[in-house]
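Dear Dr. L.,

I hope this message finds you well. Following up on our conversation about the binding site, I have prepared a predicted three-dimensional model of the protein together with fe (iii) ion. For your records, I am including the exact sequence and ligand specification that went into the calculation, followed by the structure tokens. Please feel free to forward this to your student if that is useful.
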Amino acid sequence: MGTKGIEIVGMDVQELIRLLNKAFADEWLAYYQYWLGAKVVRGPMKEAVIAELLQHATDELRHADMVANRIIQLGGTPVPEPKKWYDVTNCGYDAPDDPFVEIILKQNIKGEQCAIGVYQDILKTTMTADPVTYNMVLQILQDEVEHEEDLQSLLEDFELMVKKQA
Ligand code: FE
Ligand code: FE
Ligand code: MG
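The resulting structure of the complex is given below.
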């Protein structure tokens, strides 16, 4: 940990670490939800959906890495026990029990919308208090906004195709 780097944070550092650890748990659960979704998904447009899910899984794992690095910089410890992810998560985990493309897309859209809300809140909290965290969270938020749009446009294509065939 860098002492001056922590000293300049204009908010309760333990509270900031707590918020970041909740986001850290979200990112791992989102990663796994995408990764498994890409394995099990079935139905029309499967190939396009798999490609997008895998790309998003990679992004979520990168977000977990970014958030973990910031937690460590602040003198904290990323949630050491995976079973604790369920206790601290904001957005939870939606198991891909039903592999149908439409269901998988909707589950992940819901997850992205939750993530967008979470990161928007952290942005507001850190805006003037901690520009370093703010900058990192802004980068992540940009990805989550892109993720939501990617999935919604796949869902729109799916729905148009279904309508045409009806
Ligand atoms: Fe993410
Ligand atoms: Fe995402
Ligand atoms: Mg994408």
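In brief: Residues 11-161 form a domain with the Ferritin fold (CATH 1.20.1260.10).

With kind regards,
A. P.
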